[in-house]
Amino acid sequence: MGNWAHYSLVEGDFKNFRIRRIVLEDHDKVCEHIAECFLKGEPTSQLLGYSDKFAEEVNVVIRKVLPQGLSFLAEDKETGEIAAVRISFHHTKDIAFDEVKTSRQAQLLFKLLDEIEEAAEIHSRYGVESWAEFLIASTNPKYRSNGIAGEFYTRSIEFFKAEGFKHAVVVVTNAHTKAATKKRGFEEASRIDYDKFLDFEGNPAFDKNQLTPEHFALCVVKKIQ
């Protein structure tokens, strides 16, 4: 996927950054960014407990979807440092990431994703066999509050529309992203509050003493055609 003519809808300058598609030469730096700037600070990852093994397994998934050509990064125009990444992929019925689920953190993370998307009933509710899915949005803390994540959403939706996708889906795990998606017309399809999420033995997956009302996951959907 990824029509060369359509990349112009995303690529270009934004403030002090340059937004462009992620290419093969970027993969190692992108995976390092996700481990350091996303998994160590993202609310769900913190609850699961960060480990190098967990980061490696998540990045196996990232490396699996990057060749689809639907992911982008923003780099500092002066230094070339990766400021943010937007990982997306073409979600089909037969896509699976079972080969990476060896750590308990990864097993629980993908159990959560599977359950919330199953509850959303995207196939039957929206009558689609596949869609564009936003998987990870990550910004280096030193570059936050510049609006990069929101700009990724705006540009990527136009790109997905040009690519022929009819719907865009994202699993939201924090209030900031919830607001960003609502602003862009995403509608809630399902929700899991983390005090109700159970592990494989039927016990609470997270320590209730660490939970707040801000610990939740939403599956939100936007029609783009």
CATH homologous superfamily title = Gcn5-related N-acetyltransferase (GNAT)
Q: What is the CATH first-level class name?
A: Alpha Beta
Report the total helices. 7
Strand content: 15-25%
What is the domain tally? Answer: 1
Parts with pLDDT < 50 across at least 5 consecutive residues: none
Average residue pLDDT: 93
CATH topology: Aminopeptidase
Give structural notes:
36% of the residues lie in helices and 24% in strands. It is α+β, with helices and mostly antiparallel strands and 225 residues long. It has one domain (4-223): Aminopeptidase (3-Layer(aba) Sandwich), CATH 3.40.630.30. The chain has an 8-stranded mixed sheet with strand order 1-2-3-4-5-6-8-7, sandwiched between helices. It is globular. The model has no long low-confidence stretch (mean pLDDT 93).
Features:
single chain; alpha+beta; eight-stranded mixed sheet; 7 helices; 225 residues; Aminopeptidase
Summary, kept brief:
This protein is an alpha+beta fold and 225 residues long. It has helices spanning 27-39, 43-48, 52-65, 104-120, 122-126, 148-163, 175-183; strands at 12-14, 17-21, 72-76, 82-91, 131-139, 167-172, 187-193, 216-223. A hairpin with a 2-residue loop joins β1 and β2 (17-21).
